[in-house]
């Protein structure tokens, strides 16, 4: 195995079955590596987006609910129809449980995305460590394209 960059069209990437011989195979391999790198960058964007979304949702859930009792103090008929404090407790408890479940689910999704991002990142690193110039350029260009496409999408959410 070479320890310097070479611009040949023969390389083995990641697995024995991904053995490239010839220019057509190299072009296809560079394209696949480029797409994997774009996907890697989009994973990073999705994790940032999920983080912003969870912060936004937690900021909205911190808003205290309106107090029905203070709105209905003047009328005894309206007071009789309004919800008592004891009947609100289970509703608040259910909202907190749902919020906790939602946070746990969001954390699970972010953990899964993180695992996928780490695995893909190491695979791309191993592709670069093949010391093939074309594969290296595919990773660099894929990273640039992924960043260029992905990060402006954060402003639209």
Automatic annotation (TrEMBL):
InterPro entries: Cop_transporter. GO terms for cellular component: late endosome membrane. Keywords: Copper, Copper transport, Ion transport, Membrane, Transmembrane, Transmembrane helix, Transport. Its main location: membrane. Pfam families: Ctr. It is found in: Late endosome membrane; Membrane. It comes from the Eukaryota. The chain crosses the membrane at residues 20-43, 131-154. One of its GO terms (molecular function) is copper ion transmembrane transporter activity. It is a multi-pass membrane protein. Belongs to the copper transporter (Ctr) (TC 1.A.56) family. SLC31A subfamily. This is Copper transport protein.
């Amino acid at each position: 195995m070479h320890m310097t960059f070479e611009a040949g069209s023969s390389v083995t990437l990641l697995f024995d079955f991904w053995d490239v011989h010839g220019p057509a195979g190299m072009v296809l391999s560079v394209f696949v590596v480029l797409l994997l790198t774009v996907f890697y960058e989009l994973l990073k964007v999705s994790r940032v987006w999920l983080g912003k979304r969870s912060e936004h949702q937690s900021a909205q859930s911190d808003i205290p609910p309106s107090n029905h009792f203070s709105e209905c103090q003047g009328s005894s008929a309206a007071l009789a129809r309004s919800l008592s404090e004891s009947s609100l407790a289970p509703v608040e408890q259910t909202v907190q449980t749902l919020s906790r479940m939602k946070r746990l689910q969001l954390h699970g999704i972010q953990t899964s995305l993180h695992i996928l991002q780490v695995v893909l990142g190491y695979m791309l690193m191993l592709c670069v460590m093949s010391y093939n110039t074309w594969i290296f350029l595919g990773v660099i260009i894929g990273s640039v394209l992924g960043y260029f496409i992905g990060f402006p999408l954060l402003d639209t959410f």
